[in-house]
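Subject: design request, 446 residues
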């Protein structure tokens, strides 16, 4: 039985759960190879295409080392295969800018290493007892879900590296997947005042910063029905938004002045036309797509210019997930069904966002569209733990980033896999970051 990616593991019997895990391990590795050894030569894989990013071969070996650590050493209690690699592929010991100086495995060596790890993992999967093990790490296959999501997250990071790469294009210029458009009856939706359940205590593969579920009571507010489009953002640029200090937070204005930026990353003008660079190709800027590659400061300045503001993280999650009629929380905006092409633009199928106002079948109870997929959406909130937060299974996944100026992004992008996306999933980054597939929508008090 084939199970759709993004399906909750809750309720699956052990045999079905193990098959689901095995299928997803194969799927994510196919994706990783499709971003590295299948499309680029050794020199491109070893190169650092931006100091913001790792060499692609570092990411490839890193996901294998992480898999060895958690699925072989921790879950299966198998002795370390290559302990000398632990330091080289420790993301917290070595900043991205310095990773090219490390004695990295070459592409063929990385391929051999992660292949051996994977074969041992699949062998161990047959013998590991998940149900009734009494091990929190194994409960409902959590550690497998954690490793799968980790590799998908690195695959999205590798796509950001490809966007920064200056070599020949390796991805399709277009796709054959139409996105159904919705009739947008209002530019914004009203979310009534009242409490809702934020986070989760029941999603078996939710990560530590999504937990625990807790009640949040919000006043009424309005939020954009769709993400801010390229056309809308271009109006802000052409109105002189980047030259009006009053619109910018103090730190944002300092970034704008020091960087000299006057528009989103990868935008440029040719005479009277706006163009963008996308994966090595230059093309006309599509007005109807959600704007992407903007940082938090840019999103905040646009919102001020529009007489609005960025939604808080709680406002975003309530608009995306809470059904006031039934007083229930949805795993995805449309319900608990795993995402399909009817619901959202996810999973690297298109290599770009689709028009703002697409996917009526993916609407949230609030009426908001595209709250999952297309672009990560900046929120006004700084990353911290929820009340009752407990780090699990290691502090470095999220706790070490709390209360340090990182801003929360929600919803996933076209490059995010369905397995690593849900209405409770929390992403975060520095407010200056633009290489990520980030956009936003705005809100206002009601």
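Subject: RE: design request

Done. Sequence follows.
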């Amino acid at each position: 039985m084939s199970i759709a990616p993004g399906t909750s593991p809750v309720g699956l019997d052990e045999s079905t759960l193990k098959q689901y895990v095995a299928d997803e391990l194969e799927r994510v590795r196919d994706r990783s190879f499709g971003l590295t050894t299948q499309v680029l030569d050794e020199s491109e894989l070893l190169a650092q295409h931006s100091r913001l990013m790792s060499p692609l071969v570092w990411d490839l070996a890193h996901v294998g080392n992480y898999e060895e650590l958690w699925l072989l050493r921790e879950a299966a209690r198998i002795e370390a295969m290559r302990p000398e690699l632990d330091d080289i592929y420790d993301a917290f010991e070595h900043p991205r800018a310095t990773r090219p100086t490390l004695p990295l495995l070459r592409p063929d060596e990385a391929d051999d290493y992660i292949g051996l790890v994977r074969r041992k993992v699949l062998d161990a999967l047959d013998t590991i007892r998940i149900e009734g093990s009494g091990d929190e790490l194994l409960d409902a296959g959590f550690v497998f879900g954690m490793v799968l999501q980790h590799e998908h997250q690195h695959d999205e990071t590798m796509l950001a590296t490809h966007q920064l790469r200056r070599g020949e294009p390796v991805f399709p210029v277009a796709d054959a997947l139409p996105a159904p458009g919705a009739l947008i009856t209002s530019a914004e939706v009203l979310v009534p005042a009242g409490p809702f359940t934020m986070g989760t205590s029941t999603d078996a593969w939710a990560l530590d910063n999504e937990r625990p579920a807790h009640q949040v009571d919000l006043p009424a507010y309005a939020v954009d029905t769709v993400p801010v489009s390229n056309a809308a953002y271009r109006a802000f640029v052409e109105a002189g938004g980047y030259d009006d200090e009053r619109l910018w937070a103090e730190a944002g204005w300092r970034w704008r002045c020091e960087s000299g930026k006057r528009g989103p990353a990868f935008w440029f003008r040719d005479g009277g036309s706006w163009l963008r660079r996308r994966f090595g190709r230059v093309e006309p800027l599509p007005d109807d797509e959600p704007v992407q590659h903007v940082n938090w400061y840019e999103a905040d300045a646009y919102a001020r210019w529009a007489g609005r503001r960025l939604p808080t993280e709680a406002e975003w999650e309530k608009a995306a997930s809470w059904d006031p009629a039934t007083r229930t929380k949805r795993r995805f905006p449309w319900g608990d069904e795993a995402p399909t092409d009817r619901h959202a633009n996810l999973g690297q199928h298109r290599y770009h966002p689709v028009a703002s106002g697409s996917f009526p079948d993916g609407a949230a109870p609030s009426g908001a569209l595209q709250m999952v997929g297309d672009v990560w959406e900046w929120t006004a909130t700084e990353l911290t733990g929820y009340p009752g937060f407990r780090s699990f299974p290691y502090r470095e996944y999220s706790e070490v980033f709390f209360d340090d100026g990182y801003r929360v992004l929600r919803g996933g992008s076209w490059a995010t896999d369905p397995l690593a996306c849900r209405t409770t999933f929390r992403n975060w980054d520095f407010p200056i970051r633009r290489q990520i597939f980030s956009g936003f929508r705005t809100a206002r008090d009601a």
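The chain has a mean pLDDT of 96.
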